[in-house]
Specification:
The complex is a heterodimer of chains A (505) and B (307).
Chain A: E1 4-15, E2 18-29, E3 33-37, H1 44-51, E4 59-64, E5 67-68, H2 74-79, E6 82-85, H3 97-103, H4 111-124, H5 140-152, E7 158-162, H6 170-185, E8 189-194, H7 197-203, E9 206-211, E10 214-219, H8 226-234, E11 251-260, E12 270-278, E13 282-286, H9 293-301, E14 311-313, E15 316-317, H10 323-329, E16 331-334, H11 349-357, E17 364-365, E18 368-369, H12 371-384, H13 401-413, E19 419-423, H14 431-446, E20 450-454, H15 458-464, E21 467-472, E22 475-476, E23 480-481, H16 487-493, H17 501-504
Parallel strand pairs in A: 3-8, 3-9, 6-7, 7-8, 13-20, 13-21, 16-19, 19-20
Antiparallel strand pairs in A: 1-2, 1-4, 4-5, 9-10, 11-12, 11-14, 14-15, 17-18, 21-22, 21-23
Helix pairs in contact in A: 3-5, 11-12, 11-13, 13-14
Chain B: H1 9-35, H2 43-61, H3 64-88, H4 93-111, H5 129-132, H6 137-141, H7 146-164, H8 166-176, H9 178-183, H10 188-214, H11 226-236, H12 241-263, H13 270-288
The chains are: A alpha/beta (505), B mainly alpha (307).
Chain lengths: 505, 307
């Protein structure tokens, strides 16, 4: 390894009420793949935003190639050879691939030349892409390729990747890693942010671990176990979920030939879905985002209506019913988007509890709200699920992602559902809260409820689900018991590498 | 008595070009504003402010050209008030736009008190030598004043600028996803303020064209809803410059035709004829906008560069 490419010393950034980074120091060598590890809220995003010039540090210095480096804006960082792939893609849906890439470049060539260069570079690195397609119509994996190509076309010295694998199939991850190793071999340094420890062990040369804004350790991930790294991240030993024995009962939910068009222009239609779900069973539905997960949740919650017989709850056709009657019958749902779908951001927790719990918790009397009962229900959720908040009068928006997620899941669990459908129950939630949420789902199933868990986190599904199926372009794969599945098989069920095999054949 | 033969097709077509110019100018400006993700409902107010600014300056200096220039400045100046409210103070765009229209109507009435009943200096026609002498095409296409051609040039420039230029791409990006544009280092607020000022200048020009050429005199509230039609035109034209031109011509065409029909004594109540341009334009554009095009995704959303 050579002299450090980027050296960071004593970088500090405080926001009102929280110190996001507290004198963070580390170095990245040329050609090194360096991992930045930490829980949500540990300060990883703020740190990379400072390197990329989006945020100005309060104090501390950076040097790049031995020269002082203090980018005032992303343009300056890009000019210095720093490129970044964002966690939430910074793409423009209505524009073409080439236009999106041109927007990330300082002085892009005319579109025709650019299209040719996109083709060249995408073939060199095994990332096939058509420059003229509209980004809104691309899969998540393809969108990430757009972001990576946008960076590669600028010949970066340092490539920052913020949680790049969260939306990819295992095969796509493999291809991404090949690309990254090839770049590192060419001397490009990579700062790789993730909380997936096995990936970091497979890819990275060194890891810097952040906890509550400070760097608490540097280690060689190849010689450190995932468990040791997790404990460094959390700062305490981690609980693991306990899996109580469960008895499978009668069929609770029966889906037969469910086909639905998506209400969304860039959505995916559901194509002839069949599956059953027994009492006491947890069925995991995996798949890359945008393959029909949102539509499946909407079809089950009643936001989208289908043929009455396509969805049967304990033998009773409910496909044509709306959300409220389905709730009355015991089919409850918790959607993925916390703010705006599962909860109304500017309303209090009591009001949010009331919105789905009114019917089953008897919070209404002759059309009037029983406020004391509603507040009592909200308080029960807060106590049972350890939601950290000043009280039930707090607005949903004021809660952290993990706490709001515990509230949203708890709200449904406490209503004693017959069937519970959850989408991404632990997305963007810290490890301790994720364990608590999974445990709640396992306990609920042990009490005889049927649970459908839609998630992109395969580890999560392997941990809690009895059977697994994958959604791919709106079609459901065969459903198989989880204990006999390998990662390779799961990847194939998820649709492989979305057309990437050709480039690597 | 009805006498359709009194309507001359050449004069009719020639006057369409002129009749459509005010809303064409206002609409092409608003199109740029909306493509940048800002909804400015103050078009009517900016138009009428431009109308009185242009009228007053033209009357006082005797120069219509100077009048048009100041009309553009007046419209842009008023729009900067909107920019201050929505881009700096982060006020709601719909409420601010409505307030701007009401403010513009009141301000123009105040400014125009001494100008009622005066005739402005005439705006010369460009009688293009050879082309203007071609039979039929000459009078229809080549014997208008400079503003008609300027409006057409502006439409072409906006179309080409949005489609081919770097600045146009950045503007569309800002309107499509302002958070992503900010993350890439583009100055969202600066782009939007410039777009708003451009929209204001265009609306001002459109208003001055009404008071200096079309009518030509000053009366209170003389824009009579032209700004609202321009706004509707942008939406129903699916934010496309070419369709805005088509819609403006259609509106101008039906307006001129219904006036001719009124003059010819068609046996239809005048009210029906007067509402026909609005009805027909919106109907046609609704049918055309039934394709897959959609509004800029960040339209009317407030941008705040947090973090």
């Amino acid at each position: 390894m050579t002299a450090p490419l980027l050296a960071i010393s004593g970088l500090t950034k405080a926001y009102p009420g929280v110190v996001a980074n507290d004198s963070v120091s580390f170095e990245i060598a040329g050609g090194e793949v360096h991992a930045l590890l930490g829980e949500n809220g540990a300060g990883k995003s703020t740190l990379v935003k400072m390197i990329y010039g989006l945020v100005k540090p309060d104090s501390g210095t950076m040097t790049l190639h031995g020269a002082p480096f203090a980018p005032g804006e992303p343009r300056a960082a890009r000019a210095a050879g720093v490129a970044m792939v964002f966690q939430h893609f910074s793409l423009f849906d209505a524009l073409s691939v080439a236009e999106n890439i041109a927007l990330g470049m300082e002085s892009p060539p005319p579109l025709r030349d650019l299209s040719r260069r996109i083709r060249d570079v995408s073939e060199t690195y095994g990332l096939p892409l058509d420059p003229h397609r509209t980004v809104g119509a691309l899969s998540a994996g393809e969108r990430q390729r757009v972001e990576i190509l946008r960076c590669l076309l600028q010949n970066p010295r340092l490539l920052i990747m913020d949680e790049p694998t969260s939306v990819l199939t295992p095969q796509e991850v493999t291809i991404l890693f090949q690309t990254l190793r090839k770049l590192a071999a060419e001397g490009v340094s990579i700062l790789y942010i993730s909380h997936k420890l096995e990936e970091i062990r497979a890819l990275c040369d060194r890891a810097t671990i952040l906890r509550q804004g400070r760097n608490v350790a540097t280690c060689n991930p190849r010689e450190t176990t995932a468990r040791e790294m997790a404990q460094l991240m959390v700062g305490a030993s981690l609980d693991v979920t306990a899996r109580p024995a469960r008895q499978l009962g009668a069929t609770a939910l029966d889906i037969t030939g469910l086909s639905l068009a998506s209400p969304n222009r860039f959505g995916t239609a559901l194509k002839n879905l069949h599956f059953t779900l027994a009492e006491g069973e947890i069925l995991g539905i995996g798949g890359v985002a945008g393959n029909g997960q949102d539509e499946l949740l909407a079809a089950l919650s009643g936001e989208l209506r289908s043929a009455p017989g396509a969805i049967r709850l304990k033998g009773r056709p409910v496909g044509a019913l709306g959300p409220a009657p389905r709730r009355r019958l015991g089919l409850l749902t918790a959607p993925e988007e916390r703010l705006g779908h599962a909860a109304a951001p500017d309303m209090s927790l009591t009001e949010n509890a009331l919105m789905t719990g009114a019917e089953r918790e008897k919070l209404l009397a002759r059309g009037f709200i029983r406020w004391p009962a509603a507040q009592d229900f909200a308080e029960r959720i807060i106590t049972r699920f350890d939601v950290r908040t000043p009280g039930p009068g707090t607005a949903a928006r004021a809660l952290s992602g993990g706490n709001l997620q515990k509230f949203v899941i708890g709200r449904e669990v406490l209503q004693r559902p017959e069937v519970l459908v959850v989408n991404q129950p632990t997305w963007g939630v810290d490890a301790a809260a994720a364990v608590a949420i999974r445990q709640a789902l396992l306990d609920l199933a042990a009490d005889g409820a049927a649970i459908l868990c839609i998630s992109q986190d395969l580890d999560e599904l392997m941990e809690i689900a009895d059977r697994f199926g994958a959604l791919n372009e709106g079609r459901l794969s065969d459903i198989r018991p989880t204990h006999a599945l390998t990662l390779q098989e799961i990847g194939l069920m998820m649709g492989g590498a979305h057309g990437m095999e050709v480039a690597h054949a | 008595m009805m006498d359709l033969s009194s309507i001359s097709p050449i004069l009719l077509l020639a006057s369409i070009m002129a009749a459509s110019t005010p809303i064409l100018l206002a609409a092409i400006g608003e199109l740029v504003v909306e493509r940048a993700g800002v909804l400015n409902l103050g078009v009517e107010g900016m138009m009428i402010t431009g109308a009185i600014c242009g009228f007053a300056i033209a009357v006082n200096t005797g120069s219509p050209a100077l009048g048009f220039l100041v009309a553009a400045l007046g419209g842009a100046g008023l729009s900067l008030l909107f920019a201050l409210l929505t881009q700096v103070a982060l006020a709601n765009q719909v409420a601010s736009g409505l307030a701007l229209t009401l403010f513009g109507l009141g301000l123009s009435a105040l400014l125009g008190q001494g100008y009622v009943g005066i005739k402005p200096p005439p705006t010369p026609r460009l009688d293009i030598p050879v082309l203007g002498d071609i039979p039929f095409l000459g009078p229809v296409l080549f014997s208008h004043d400079l503003m008609v051609y300027l409006a057409l040039a502006l439409v072409t420039a906006v179309w080409a600028g949005l489609k081919y230029s770097r600045a146009g791409l950045v503007l569309r990006a800002v309107g499509e996803n302002h958070d992503a544009a900010h993350a890439l280092g583009y100055k969202v607020v600066r782009v939007r303020v410039l777009a708003i000022a451009f929209g204001g200048a265009c609306a001002g020009l459109g208003g001055a064209y009404l008071s200096l050429v079309r009518v030509p005199q000053w009366t209170e509230g003389m824009t009579a809803g032209a700004g609202w039609i321009a706004l509707a035109l942008v939406v129903f034209a699916s934010w496309k410059a070419g369709r805005v031109l088509l819609g403006a011509w259609l509106f101008g065409g039906v307006s001129v035709l219904q006036l001719n029909l009124q003059a010819a004594g068609v046996a239809l109540p005048v009210e029906y004829l007067s509402m026909s341009p609005y009805l027909i334009t919106i109907l046609v554009l609704v049918i055309m906008s039934a394709d897959r095009s959609r509004a800029p995704a960040s339209l009317a959303r407030i941008f705040h560069a947090s973090q």
